[in-house]
Design brief:
The complex is a heterodimer. Chain A is built from 1 helix and 5 strands. In chain A, 4% of the residues lie in helices and 38% in strands. In chain A, strand 2 and strand 3 form a beta hairpin. Chain B is mainly alpha-helical. Classes of the chains: A mainly beta, B mainly alpha.
């Protein structure tokens, strides 16, 4: 998800209804195949869920690999990002 | 200042980890890639057995023969190695300990299949190549039945 997110960033997310989100939102969702918790950006609305992409296409595993994420697997939408301590300037 | 305090508090809170990108979370596995490689091994083995050396001492004919023979051997060895790698990915990454309950012969099947890859790589042995295809078919059946499916075994050749 770089540059949108870096490893170690923390996010605040609120539970949401998938049909009320917009492209561009960052969501926490369950992987459609192995149930791992993912963080991805919504790309486009599909009939059966959301097409999601990582911000860093070359390194990302996303809907290009596992397809649409069904609405029921979209858990929460990110409302704030707390950068990892390593990204904060001292003081 | 306030921002920094908030950040510090946030980083103290317990949080669940979410993966943005990681090694192979796509969960896309398919024994088809092992099957294609194993088919190539069988095909190259048959071609090698069918390849007749030229009669006489014609240098050009021998060069062609040696070239073709070497190519067949190179492809056979490469594809045998490829089959082994594809099988190892299924064995070590896809199959989980809980699968052993359903398929108690899982480890033995993969181990023997990997050994067959080596045998096919080293030798020109059609019987071993056919055994390898049978082993890959067995793995195909286990794989799809672990997903609750019964996909048919289809070969390209």
């Amino acid at each position: 998800m770089f540059p949108g997110l870096c490893h170690g960033d923390r996010v605040i997310a609120r539970p949401c209804r998938a049909d009320q989100l917009r492209p561009g939102d960052i969501v926490l969702a369950r992987h459609p195949l192995d149930e791992q918790l993912l963080i991805k950006r919504l790309s486009k609305r599909c009939a059966d869920g959301w097409w999601v992409l990582g911000d860093n296409p070359a390194a990302s595993t996303d809907s290009r690999h596992f397809g649409v994420i069904p609405d029921a697997l979209v858990m929460a939408v990110v409302t704030a990002i707390a950068p990892a301590a390593s990204r904060l300037r001292p003081g | 200042m306030l921002r920094s305090v908030v950040q510090r508090i946030l980083h103290q809170l317990p949080a669940t980890q979410a993966a943005a990108h990681c090694d192979g979370p796509c969960g896309v596995y398919d024994p088809a890639s092992a099957r294609v490689a194993a088919e190539a091994v069988l095909s190259m083995t048959k071609k090698l057995l069918a390849l007749a050396p030229p009669e006489g001492n014609d240098a050009a004919a021998w060069a062609t023969y040696n070239n073709t023979f070497s190519r067949y051997v190179a492809v056979k060895e490469e594809q045998a190695q490829e089959t082994k790698e594809e099988l190892l990915i299924l064995w070590t990454d896809y199959f989980k300990p809980e699968h052993l309950a359903t398929f108690p012969e899982l480890h033995d099947t993969f181990w023997k299949a990997a050994k067959l890859c080596s045998a096919c790589k080293v030798n020109i042995d059609q019987a071993k190549a056919e055994e390898l295809m049978q082993a890959v078919e067995k793995i195909h059946t286990m794989f799809w039945s672990s997903k609750g499916r019964s996909d048919a075994w289809v070969t390209a050749s």
